[in-house]
Amino acid sequence: MVNGFSKWLSLALFLLAGIAGVNAENHVKATALTHDIKDLSQRSSKIYDQNGERCALIRFETPIPSYFSFNLGAQQVEKRENKDDEVWIWVSADVKKMTIRCSECSPLKDYRVSLKAGNVYRAKLTTGLPQEVATTQNVNIYCERIPFYISIDGSEPVLNAGRNYYTELPIGAHEINVSSKMYKPLSKTIRVYRSRPYMDTIRLEDYSGEVLLTATQSSYSVYVDDELQKQNKRFKLEPGMHKLVIKKDRYETFETQVDVKLNEQTSVYAALKPAFSIFTVTAADDDTEIWIDDEYKGRGKANVEIVWGEHSVQGRRPGYDTFEFPIHDFTANSEKAIKIPKLNKQYGSLHLSVTPKEAFVMLDGVPIEPTDGVYNVARYPTGTHYVQIRMTDYSPVRDSFTVVSGQLSTHEYLLTPIPLGQITIHTESEIGIYLVVKDGEPIFLGHTDFQGKLPAGENVIELRNLDGVKCYYRIFLNDKEIHDPVTLPFKRELMIRKNIAGGTIKLKGPQQPEYQIKANKKIKLLPYPYALTVEKKGYITYKDTIDLSVTNSKSLIYRANVRRVGDTLQTNKSGYKSPAFLQRFYDNAGKWFIGIIDFGYSFDFNGGNGYRHQVHLGVLPFRYRMLGVNPADFEVTVNDGNIFKTLCYRPRLSLVLPCNHGFAFTFYGGASVNINDWYNKVEKIRTHLLGGVTMRFNYSGRFPMDLFAEYKYPVQGVDKSTIGKYEQLFRVGVIFTGGIDL
């Protein structure tokens, strides 16, 4: 039985050992305690245990002190401190064994110790964790002086732009050197441990003196030891000798040596001396241009500011030789007056040939007389020249050319004849008539009347009154036709129409006060641009410009479409026109339309018995905005040579639905009564109901045209069995209405 129990116990221990081996790959291990007899610091220790006895100090060496915890059983650790690569614990001298634990490791149990009060003991702890064998650690060096240079273990100094310098260093001791401009450098030894990142603060001692600079000029640049200084009045430098240079345009460079003392102020006074003078440059010719170093300074005479040194002074003039003042080193003692002599003119030679030889030639605005159509000049000024050649019944020529010094400039011109048209122009009394030609002055043709030939094609005629007011007309001539006469009015007739009743119409011409005019009334105006304003309460003010100087018509009818306030003229996504949009066309129709005559033509589809033709004659059709009535409308059938075969009276009511672009749909309904039956005194007068739709063009104008389709239904005096033979059912046609739109 004992043997059986032993087997079961051995099996259990084996399984527990296997489980422990699986769950823990790392184990806490510790060396035996050694008594450090040289460390007497704890002999007078004031750390006591629960019994009032002095504690013993155990120093465990480990790179990961914060990972460990210690269990003393019934007793406790009286004090603990984590040092660099060590953990210190103060325990009672009565402690005989302890359990040492570490996260991620198997604990070390029953670690036996033998201690004496007040003594120091040492041991090493290991676990096999990767943290124990780390070779580097993060390092952060903070310095309040920026930028600063840092060197580690004698390496090349590195410039750090911020206050924190971050790096990673091997475990162990390192020598660092920190320096900054105008501060004493600092060297120190640091030690990097595995247990924690290293952080250190460096404070550098000021090592500079102040320079106070006073100069006789402003806006200068300061260089210290050939380096541009940001501050130019008060700045700090390191102690010692420094080269100070002050530069300013047009002034001599100031240079001195400054001995800067530590924590002292050194004053420097800089007297900047001018390095320029005002020179007067005078040319013998007023047209000579003065140039200094290829920069234009004036013409004829110029006062220029020249900085001492080498400069080039030139006198230039198109068509003349350039005079260059010898390159000279200007100083304070230089002559302040520079004179440019008269320039020598440059010449080339010119050859012009003109055909026909009788043509009139102008060269640079001066008439010349070529010999047999040829003009030769051996010495002609260089530069750009202009030629104009004209001859009656020929196309004019305008050209430019350049004559180069010492070279022959040859140009040949051939005028082409132009077709002419015979015309007689008549205008108002004492009005000047001119022909406008391209790139030239208008040609005077006479006063009031002109009879003669003008170039075929489009001509622009200018009319001028005695006050110099001008207006223009465009006339197209054919060389094979005679235009006799063409009447050109100087004053234009203008009539303003508007789509609303009431309101005011105002015109304002140039240099004229604004004045009020009446609608639908012709007025005569001079050919000026006029500002138009139409105003009415509840409507948006209408403004436009009517330019009567460009229209070719004697009379002009202008229509102002005034919109109501809030009329946005918009449509929704489905395309439906908003009420504001319809209102605009509703207004365009005018308040009243009174038709003087209503006439037209149609033919009907007569049930397979051919077509019948009708002539329509209406009297007094009315329309009030979108509703209309035709109280006296007649229809006459004219087929078979009998004009009175059918005479009907057709009163109707209509509804106008305006659309965009000047057309509308009209739906109407009414009756048709046969007047012939009244004459014949039949028992039942033939009566029809009728309905139709029209597409009306120019619905808001004076002569709208309707394309219509109509259906007639008999209600009395008609045998319906004979409808296809005697009475029309459907017809189409066209109707014109003449009247007044108010």
Structural account:
The protein has 742 residues and is mainly β. The protein is 6% helix and 54% strand. The protein contains 4 helices and 62 strands. Strands 52, 53, 54, 55, 56, 57, 58, 59, 60, 61 and 62 form an 11-stranded antiparallel β-sheet that branches. Strands 1, 2, 3, 5, 6 and 9 form a 6-stranded mixed β-sheet that branches. The protein has a 4-stranded antiparallel β-sheet with strand order 12-11-14-15, with no helix packed on it. The radius of gyration is 58 Å and the shape is flat. The termini are far apart.
Provide a brief overview of the structure:
By secondary structure, the chain is mainly beta. The protein contains four helices and 62 strands.
SSE arrangement:
Elements: H1 2-23, E1 29-30, E2 34-35, E3 56-61, E4 68-71, E5 79-83, E6 86-91, E7 97-102, E8 108-112, E9 120-126, E10 136-143, E11 148-152, E12 158-160, E13 164-170, E14 172-180, E15 183-192, E16 198-202, E17 209-215, E18 221-224, E19 227-229, E20 234-237, E21 240-247, E22 254-260, E23 265-270, E24 276-283, E25 289-292, E26 295-299, E27 301-307, E28 309-316, E29 323-330, E30 337-340, E31 347-355, E32 360-363, E33 366-368, E34 374-381, E35 383-390, E36 397-403, E37 408-414, E38 420-427, E39 432-436, E40 443-447, E41 449-455, E42 457-464, E43 470-477, E44 482-488, E45 492-498, E46 504-508, E47 515-517, E48 523-525, E49 529-535, E50 542-547, E51 555-560, H2 579-588, E52 592-605, E53 611-619, E54 622-624, E55 627-630, E56 632-637, E57 646-649, E58 652-658, E59 663-674, H3 675-680, E60 687-697, E61 705-716, H4 723-726, E62 730-741
Parallel strand pairs: 3-9, 10-16, 17-23, 24-30, 31-37, 38-44, 45-51
Antiparallel strand pairs: 1-9, 2-9, 3-6, 4-7, 5-6, 7-8, 10-13, 11-12, 11-14, 14-15, 17-20, 18-19, 18-21, 21-22, 24-27, 25-26, 25-28, 28-29, 31-34, 32-33, 32-35, 35-36, 38-41, 39-40, 39-42, 42-43, 45-48, 46-47, 46-49, 49-50, 52-53, 52-54, 52-62, 53-56, 54-55, 55-58, 56-57, 57-59, 58-59, 59-60, ...
